[in-house]
Design brief:
six-stranded parallel β-sheet, five-stranded antiparallel β-sheet, Jelly Rolls, alpha/beta
Length: 375
């Protein structure tokens, strides 16, 4: 079976980093992603058939929470099964292994990651295959599971639900957004030379500093103010925090000030800047049908009746928000969600759109994607 470098199999594809890798790959038309579901590991035959002609295998599947002995055995078993399945294929693809900085320690999880990496490295050496041990710091980003993936996810969940986050241990973390890690994985996957250990660097800080930063972002947003997003790390943090507010806090109502002259409301308050524009949309017409990786984008109907529809990438579920110019409110689009707005009224719809960045045609961060699938 001929291996194809641009055909990439991802184990653990439904997990946190797996989802972000698939989101990143959507903008790479030359790359075909093969999703390897967890049940494929039930037999070597099933696993080898799923991987097929993939020229690269990114091994993310693993267990990082649970009884220590089970965590240890599960991660080693997954590595052994992957090696056995690849032997059945008769050819050796490139392997990228998602390792962790915990592998430098002595916890059962750290030991399992270290030994799994050694097992796969030996397999690759014996078969003349390229192997990359990708050592990751603490990941954060949209879709992280609170009380499982990270303290970052837990803090965001608690803030979004009106809870007071508690620091159990004010340790030091090294943070990187999952999309930046996904970008590096794809670079390494298509690179034909790099092998061995590759350490991805994050931003170090105390847990207490992280929590204070998230509280500051949340407090600003709760007061209707978009914080300063000029620092890419701050933008990543803000977009991640917003993802935990969606969908329950939208649409966000605006206070309408009225007097004998008419009405007034504050559409956007920001410490950052950006770009605003107004559009008119005829009855029955839809705008949007795209998604963004980094952009903070606001939809605010000024006049008319509209439906805003939003779908998370790789999901079939569509959230629908009915909005009206008679009751000023806004919906801020979550990143990695396809979105659209349709005029459902009988007259022209007037909508204010705002983005935290000025539109750049050469780097628009706008990717076409239908919201309603199979139509």
């Amino acid at each position: 079976m001929t291996k194809t470098l641009n055909k990439i199999a991802i184990t653990g594809s439904s997990g946190f980093l797996g989802w972000h890798l698939r989101c990143w790959a959507k903008q790479m038309p030359s790359v075909e992603v093969i999703e390897v579901p967890d049940e494929s590991f039930d037999s070597l035959e099933s696993l080898s058939e799923t991987i097929g002609s993939a020229g690269v295998v990114i091994h993310l599947a693993g267990m990082n929470r649970g009884p220590e002995a089970e965590v240890y055995e599960t991660n080693l078993k997954l590595a052994r099964n992957l090696a056995g399945a690849l032997d059945r294929l008769g050819e050796a693809p490139v392997i990228l292994f998602a390792n962790s900085t915990h592998s430098f320690g002595d916890s059962p999880f750290g030991q399992s990651k270290r030994e799994a990496s050694a097992l796969l490295a030996m397999w690759a050496k014996d078969r003349g295959a390229r192997y990359v041990d990708v050592v990751l710091p603490h990941l954060f980003g949209e879709g992280g599971r609170p009380f499982y993936n990270s303290a970052f996810a837990t803090f965001c969940h608690q803030l979004a639900n009106g809870e007071e986050p508690q620091i159990l241990q004010d340790g030091r973390v090294e943070l990187i957004h999952a999309q930046r890690a996904a970008s590096r994985f794809m670079e390494l996957a298509l690179d034909t030379e790099t092998s061995g250990a590759v350490r991805i660097e994050g931003i170090p800080m105390q847990v207490s500093v992280l929590l204070a930063h998230l509280k500051s972002l949340y407090g600003s947003y709760a007061e209707g103010i978009i914080p300063d997003l000029s620092d890419p790390f701050h933008l990543d943090c803000f977009n991640t925090l917003r993802s935990y507010l969606y969908p329950t806090c939208y649409p966000m109502p605006l206070r309408l000030h009225t007097d004998t002259r008419g009405g007034l409301f504050e559409a956007v308050k920001t410490q950052h800047g950006g770009q605003a524009f107004l559009s008119s949309t005829h009855p029955g017409i839809t705008r949007g049908r795209h998604y963004h990786h980094r952009k903070v984008e606001r939809f605010l109907v000024v006049s008319g009746e509209a439906e805003i529809r939003i779908r998370r990438l790789f999901s079939m579920e569509v959230q629908v928000f009915r909005v009206s110019g008679a009751e000023p409110c806004f919906v801020d689009m979550p990143t990695f969600h396809a979105h659209e707005i349709t005029n459902v009224g009988t007259r022209d719809l007037l909508t204010l759109f705002w983005s935290h960045e000025i539109f750049n045609p050469s780097d628009s961060d706008t990717y076409p994607e239908p919201v309603i699938l199979n139509q």
